[in-house]
Specification:
By secondary structure, the protein is mainly beta. Helices cover 5% and strands 58% of the residues. It contains one helix and ten strands; from the N terminus they run H-E-E-E-E-E-E-E-E-E-E. An eight-stranded antiparallel β-barrel has the order 1-2-3-4-5-8-9-10. It has a two-stranded antiparallel ribbon with strand order 6-7. A hairpin with an 8-residue loop joins strand 3 and strand 4. It is elongated and about 50 Å long. The two termini are 31 Å apart.
């Protein structure tokens, strides 16, 4: 995938390409898994809808358009660029003390520019499903800051062999506008 296409894909995926919607926040993630370091920038668009709001928790979510870079220092390994679009569901606590804990889960679509991660791991196709589970906390003025942990798995779901997949443990920091 050409690097000059990454920004237009990210903007189109986040809704910034149209005047109807714009990003409501941005995030940075860093992590490691399967001897591979990763870093990712994301634009997020909060949903205006929530469900199950009667109790002390409620469900809502956001869209996440991301551009990531993976680096593996093994001999013969290539750096990999990753572009993703993911709907993320979040279960928030209604806690009123300024801190708002959450749990989240997601499954989205990713495109990577190389499928060969290293001598032990080949992802088989450029198209990958990316799912994750996470937990974190929102805090600060109007709860604009978000700090969380994610466990993410990327795999092509056996659409093409080999399908070694890759797992990442990530720390994520977001700022909501």
């Amino acid at each position: 995938m050409k690097k000059k296409l990454l920004l237009p894909l990210l903007l189109a995926g986040s809704g910034l390409g149209s005047g109807a919607q714009a990003a409501s926040g941005m995030a940075i993630e860093a992590g490691n898994g399967d001897s591979t370091n990763m870093a990712q920038l994301s634009l997020v668009r909060q949903w205006d809808k929530s469900w199950f709001a009667e109790g002390s928790w409620y469900l809502t979510g956001y869209w996440e358009a991301s551009v990531g870079h993976w680096h593996n220092s093994d001999a013969g390994a290539k750096d990999i660029w990753d572009v993703g679009l993911t709907p993320v569901f979040r279960l928030y606590s209604k806690g009123g003390n300024g801190l708002q804990p959450y749990l989240e889960g997601a499954i989205g679509a990713h495109l990577i520019d190389h499928t060969h991660v290293n001598s032990r791991r080949d992802l088989g196709s450029a198209f990958q499903f990316g799912d994750h589970l996470g937990a974190g906390i929102r805090f600060g003025d109007h709860r604009r800051f978000d700090l969380g942990y994610r466990f993410q798995r990327l795999s092509n779901a056996d659409l093409k062999r080999p399908n070694d997949g890759i797992n990442f443990q990530q720390i994520r920091f977001a700022y909501l506008f």
